[in-house]
Specification:
alpha+beta; globular
C-alpha cells in the first residue's frame, strides 16, 4: 500500500508527489501523469531544466519535445507549458531540499 507525500502542487491537476514506501514519483500535468523511480525522476528534472534554459533561444510557438523516459511517451510542449513544468519541478525540488535540511535538526 502506497503512502504518498505531496511535494508541490500548483493546481488540482498539476502536482508532484512521492510514494515514501516504494520511492516512486508521480508528475501530473493536467491530462498526463508520469511515474518515475528516483534516478529517472532526477534525470527528468535535469532534462526539463536544460530544455527550459535552451527554449529562450527558440522562436515563440515552436514545439519542444520533452522525453519522459516512459516507454513510448514524450511531451510536446510550447514554451509556456514548459515553463509551468519547470517551475513545478523546481518547486518540488525546493520542498524536498527543505525537508532534508529540516530532518537534520530532528531525530
Amino acid at each position: 500500500m502506497c503512502n504518498f507525500r505531496m511535494w508541490y502542487k500548483t493546481d488540482d491537476e498539476v502536482y508532484v508527489l512521492q510514494c515514501v514506501q516504494c520511492n516512486t514519483y508521480q508528475v501530473r500535468m493536467r491530462n498526463a501523469a508520469f511515474m518515475f523511480d528516483t534516478f529517472t525522476f532526477t534525470l527528468f528534472c535535469e532534462v526539463v531544466a536544460d530544455l527550459y534554459i535552451k527554449s529562450t533561444e527558440m522562436k515563440p510557438g515552436e514545439p519542444i519535445k520533452v522525453p519522459t523516459f516512459n516507454q513510448g511517451m514524450d511531451l510536446i510542449l510550447e514554451r509556456p507549458a514548459l515553463r509551468e513544468l519547470y517551475y513545478l519541478l523546481d518547486g518540488a525540488d525546493t520542498e524536498m531540499k527543505a525537508a532534508q535540511m529540516t530532518s537534520l535538526f530532528y531525530y
